[in-house]
Amino acid sequence: MKVTISKPADIVGAIHAAYEGLSAREKEVADHILAAPGDISMYPGSELAARVGVSNSTITRFVKRVGFESYEEMRLAAREARQTGSPLFTESQVAEAAENGVVGRFADAEAACLRGALADLSADKMQQVVAALLEARQVAFMGFRNSHFLASYARRLVFQFRGGTSLIPSSPGESIAERIADLGKGDMAVVVAMRRTVRPMRDYVEALQASGVRILLVTDPSVRILPTCAEWTITCPVENPHVFDSYAGPMAALRLIAFEAFQRSGAKGRAHLARIETVHERLDELS
């Protein structure tokens, strides 16, 4: 599969593209770098080897496998990315002191996750995603386990101003293949894949890609390979000092995309919403 890598995230993209073919030890190096890509700009290859617990030769092989001529070249790319302010390459730390104790620390951690997610949603990426969302014949929202409620939330926002939306999976008696087979060129899939998703997720995303479906992937920094299948990826930090993952970032990114799409939908989107409200009133469903 041909993958186009663009700066400043070329290191991350290159590692994702090469990940499947790496050895077990090389994958340890990849996982260490992807956890904090900007850190490699600050130390030599020998220190990276010591941190991961591998040999210097493993670092050399890894660098070649992901497409760089030398560790120094990869290190300079990471330094450049830090200087451009790429959120993947800049440190994000929770404030050690907060005015309101545990509540303040929790708020700081949530805010850091939210800022990290929105920082990865550039104006250009936003415009492309919004245009695709409005132009698509059908828009499918896919997610499993914890990602399912995020996909469902995104769909609930979008179906208020456009038709032709669906949720995958939607019912226990339905196979994923049946839903994917209904999608093709001219359609879009919003795939939410936060960490610890189901094993066949890669197969599902590759099947969507093979059908010509345009894919927006909303994920976290731990996910491997899947970004190479997506046209757009929004990477959302979810890990923080508290036990449970934070979904403040992906929910904010999905809501912002829906808001911008609704704004751009104009009279057509508002007419769709008005029809829904009319039926609500007729059926007297809501209090």
From TrEMBL:
Biological processes per GO annotation: carbohydrate derivative metabolic process
Domain HTH rpiR-type: 9-85
Single Gene Ontology MF annotation: carbohydrate derivative binding
Pfam family, one: SIS
InterPro entries: Homeodomain-like_sf, HTH_RpiR, RpiR-like, SIS_dom, SIS_dom_sf, WH-like_DNA-bd_sf
PROSITE patterns: HTH_RPIR (PS51071)
Matching PANTHER family: GLUCOKINASE, RPIR-FAMILY TRANSCRIPTIONAL REGULATOR
Protein name: HTH rpiR-type domain-containing protein
